[in-house]
Predict the structure.
Amino acid sequence: MASEVFYSPRCAVRWCNLIHARPQLDDSKPHAWTCELLLEPKTNPSHALFLERLESIFNEAHGTKKRRSDKGVPWKPDKDNSAIIVVKFKTQQFVRDDGTTAPGPRIIDAKKNAWDGAAIGNGSELMLSFTTYAWERPEGTGLSLQPKAAQVLHLVPREERDATEGFEEQEGYAVGQVDAFVDEFADEAPF
């Protein structure tokens, strides 16, 4: 039986890593796709309804009496602004029995065209489709939200800046410059 697919409302995004563009340093580990949606339930009724739906999904899976794990609820108030609720989505890359890997979430633009591969920066707005995975461990119960697709409604391109831009030229070592060798053990007797 297929998992039920849910949809988020239009939300601003923070830390959107839904594109598998860069090779990983360690190919033995599966890739993970992650995204954080920023909800404003006090000012946006669709955001408030979405949070109520997430609570309902959690309660349907676990009931209301079971203890929730500290990491079991993927929506929490933002550390810097308690009016914003951060909802975290994450899914691991699935490796099939034949060794091939399943693709990540499918991404489309506002007109349902295939995504061009541009990195999605903070402040972009999108809607996500996702499935849920309810789990139970000794520390309590939890719910994972697994992104399946995203529709980018407003793109804020991710800035790829050179991290060395803020430095100025200084006196000191330059590549190719060789300082005189100093043997700090020259005065000691050999073994």
About this structure: The longest strand covers residues 140-154. Strands lie at 6-7, 11-17, 32-39, 75-77, 85-92, 106-109, 125-137, 140-154.
